[in-house]
Amino acid sequence: MIQAHDSVIVRKMSRVLIPLIQLYALYVLFFGQQGPGGGFVCGVMLGTSLILGILVFGPDSQPYRLAQKAMHGDGVGLLIFAGIGGLCLIGGGQYLNYSGLTIPGIDTDVERHYLGILLTQVGVAIDIAVTAISIVFSLAFIDDDRDDP
C-alpha cells in the first residue's frame, strides 16, 4: 500500500522537481526529433513524475487522482499513432509516410513531416506514461495477505 512520505524536505523538493521534470519531458517531446529523446523518453519522464508525486504525497493527493484519470486514457496513444498512419494512407501515401499526410493549412512536405512525427511521438508518450503508471499501480496494490513460501 502506498503511504504519504512524512519528510518535509522530500515533500518540498518534490513540489519543485515534479513540474521541472514535466516541463523537461515536454521539451524532449518537441525537440526529440533533432536530438536524443522523443515520445518514449517523454512518456517515461511524465509517468515517473506522477509516480514520484504518488510516492511522496500519498493516495489522497492530486498526482494520485491525475494518475487514476490517466489510466482511463490507455489506448489513446495507439489510436493517435494508428490514426496518423491511416491519414497518410488516405492521403495516397504509405503508412507513416508523412508526405501523404493531408491536413488543411499545411502545404509543404517539411511541415507535414514535422507535424506527423510530432503527433506520432505524442501517441507514443501517452502510451508509455500510462504503461508506467499501470505497472506501479499493479505492483502497489498486490494482495498482502497471500502466503509466500
TrEMBL record:
Its main location: membrane. InterPro entries: CPA3_antiporter_subunitB, MnhB. It is a multi-pass membrane protein. The keyword Protein biosynthesis does not apply. It is found in: Cell membrane. GO terms for cellular component: plasma membrane. Residues 9-131 form the Na+/H+ antiporter MnhB subunit-related protein domain. It comes from the Bacteria. Keywords: Cell membrane, Membrane, Transmembrane, Transmembrane helix. It holds the Pfam family MnhB. The chain crosses the membrane at residues 12-31, 37-57, 78-96, 116-142. PANTHER family: NA(+)/H(+) ANTIPORTER SUBUNIT B, NA(+)_H(+) ANTIPORTER SUBUNIT B. Belongs to the CPA3 antiporters (TC 2.A.63) subunit B family. This is Na(+)/H(+) antiporter subunit B. The gene is mrpB.
